[in-house]
């Protein structure tokens, strides 16, 4: 398969996952009002897809206990889509009642991590996915699958590409509108991105592909650019680079929205998102969480520097 030139990729959509993945691993639990404000600022920056909440058991992820309240307060605008993460039918019922625009279902590619993350095996998670996807389609709500630990597992080691491909087929067969490949623990490298992109496209050629990278080993941005060079046009990122998985040892944050924007914009790729607004939001969020912002753009500034 011939790789597209960078210049041929004119637009990339960022999915802002800070309100969900960015907050779920933090010790500080933001107020409902602050979560809504984070989403409002993201939308004001130009982001049009936001993973706003997850509908999971509050004892397992207390940071997401107010999902319904957050969804009740988000700004509803034409062209803005709010994603709710669900793991089971109960979560889907909550998400539909809260009027999410999309549902995203996580299926972990390895059994050990899946049991720790969701309390079930990968096969059981796939059965739940089939049920959720059918019910979501019946309700007229798009459903996507995120294949977690697609690049490696903290408990089982390397994830076989064939396993990721099989999960992608199951996603396709159940009517997924999008498949997201997640480097949940940040072990992937660009060569893996290229291989998985090509293999998943062969298995599910009609289903759009998205990537979700963590920067645990400082490869997240290189991986994102590799995906773009393969023609992928949808990437997850988290304002400030906050985030991580509470069930993965030593997990660190997602790639930062503002740092990714810098690379994409310097490559001539349009995102429709204001870097300066995201930087300001990251500073605000760091203050609310009481910790330094992991992202670098807010420290170094843009280049060339804006005119005085």
UniProtKB/TrEMBL annotation:
Keywords: Lyase, Metal-binding. CDD domains: DRE_TIM_HMGL. SUPFAM superfamilies: Aldolase. One of its GO terms (molecular function) is hydroxymethylglutaryl-CoA lyase activity. Residues 12-279 form the Pyruvate carboxyltransferase domain. GO terms for biological process: ketone body biosynthetic process; L-leucine catabolic process. PANTHER family: HYDROXYMETHYLGLUTARYL-COA LYASE. Belongs to the HMG-CoA lyase family. This is Hydroxymethylglutaryl-CoA lyase. It comes from Actinomadura barringtoniae.
């Amino acid at each position: 398969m011939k790789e597209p030139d960078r210049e041929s990729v004119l637009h990339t959509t960022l999915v802002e996952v800070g309100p969900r993945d960015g907050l779920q691993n933090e010790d500080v639990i933001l107020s409902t009002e602050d979560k809504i404000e984070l989403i409002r600022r993201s939308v004001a920056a130009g982001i049009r897809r936001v993973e706003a909440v997850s509908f999971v058991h509050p004892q397992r992820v207390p940071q997401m206990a107010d999902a319904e309240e957050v969804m009740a307060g988000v700004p509803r605008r034409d062209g803005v889509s709010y994603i709710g993460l669900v793991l089971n039918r109960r979560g889907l019922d909550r998400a539909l009642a809260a009027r999410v625009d999309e549902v995203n279902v996580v299926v972990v590619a390895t059994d050990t991590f899946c049991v720790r993350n969701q309390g079930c095996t990968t096969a059981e998670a796939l059965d739940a996915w089939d049920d959720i996807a059918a019910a979501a389609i019946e309700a007229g709500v798009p459903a996507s699958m995120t294949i977690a630990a697609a690049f490696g597992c903290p408990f089982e080691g390397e994830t076989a590409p064939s396993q990721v491909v099989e999960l992608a087929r199951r996603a396709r067969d159940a009517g997924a509108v999008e498949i997201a490949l997640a480097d949940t623990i940040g072990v992937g490298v660009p060569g893996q991105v290229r291989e998985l992109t090509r293999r998943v496209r062969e298995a599910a050629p009609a289903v759009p592909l998205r990537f979700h990278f963590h920067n645990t080993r400082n490869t997240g941005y290189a991986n994102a650019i590799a995906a773009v060079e393969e023609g992928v046009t949808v990437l997850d990122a988290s304002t400030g680079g906050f985030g991580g998985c509470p069930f993965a040892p030593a997990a660190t944050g997602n790639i930062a929205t503002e740092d990714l924007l810098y690379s994409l914009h310097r490559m001539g790729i349009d995102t429709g998102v204001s870097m300066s607004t995201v930087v300001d939001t990251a500073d605000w969020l760091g203050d609310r969480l009481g910790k330094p912002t992991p992202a670098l753009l807010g420290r170094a500034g843009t280049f060339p520097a804006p005119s005085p």
